[in-house]
Amino acid sequence: MADGADVLHETITAVVAQHAMGGDERIGQLVDMLTAPLVRNSARPTSLPVVETWLEPAAALADGPETTVAEALIRHGDSLLWRRAYDTVPPTPEISWMHDGYAYGVLIGPAGGTGGNSTPPFPPPFISDEVFLGFSIQAPDTLYPAHHHLPTEIYGVIGGTADWLNGTGQWTPRPPGSVFIHEPHEIHGMRTGPEPLLAWAAWIDHPAETAYLAD
Questions:
Q1: Residues 102 and 48: beta-carbon distance below 8 Å
Q2: How many domains is the chain built from?
């Protein structure tokens, strides 16, 4: 019988496959990675206050195919390892604010952990040295500062509309159903307004790398 992590894996794979039709070939590459055999792991789920407070309100803002992912996360989000980002870097007011307003839940990735300068590096429910995939929750009025990383990243908005900073320095609203790609070391960031944000993100290469705040 499938458990919560299996349901999340099946659901996000189906939604990514819909976006792959007629889209960037790298989204199709992600589908191939998600449908390849993965090593199942007995993960130790964790949660954070921002998840408990904002998961359901953000999921309620989902639209289209992403609604299935939002519903699966409401039912099975407690099967994920939810982590704070950048909790190993020197604290600043900006980062301290983000610590209370942002979390990401790892579904697939390397056994040694990945991304965001986060601890502890518990292994996720599915182990892969080829791909990282997780979900993020961002509270209203929260800034994820400009950052960059070596991996090519595919992002998808599940619920809530937020502004995204791209490599040109422009902020662009991204509503539910948006799927877009950050190139290696492209500067990007996210800021929420009155709505929370629920999203998924995947690194389709170098999944054991980490992210760095922009200077």
A1: no
A2: 1
CB neighbourhood size of 107 (10 A): 25
Q: Domain limits at 17?
A: 4-213
CA distances from 3 to 26, 78, 87, 100 (A): 28, 11, 30, 29
As given in the structure block, the two tokens for residue 3 are: 């458990």
| Per-residue pLDDT tens over the stretch 75-129 | 999 999 899 888 777 777 778 878 889 999 999 999 876 554 555 566 789 999 9
Which domain CATH number covers 201? 2.60.120.10
What pTM value is reported for the model? 0.94
Beta strand segments in the chain, E = 39-40, 81-83, 102-109, 126-127, 132-138, 143-149, 153-159, 162-165, 171-174, 179-182, 188-191, 197-203, 211-213
Q: Which two tokens stand for residue 194?
A: 């009155």
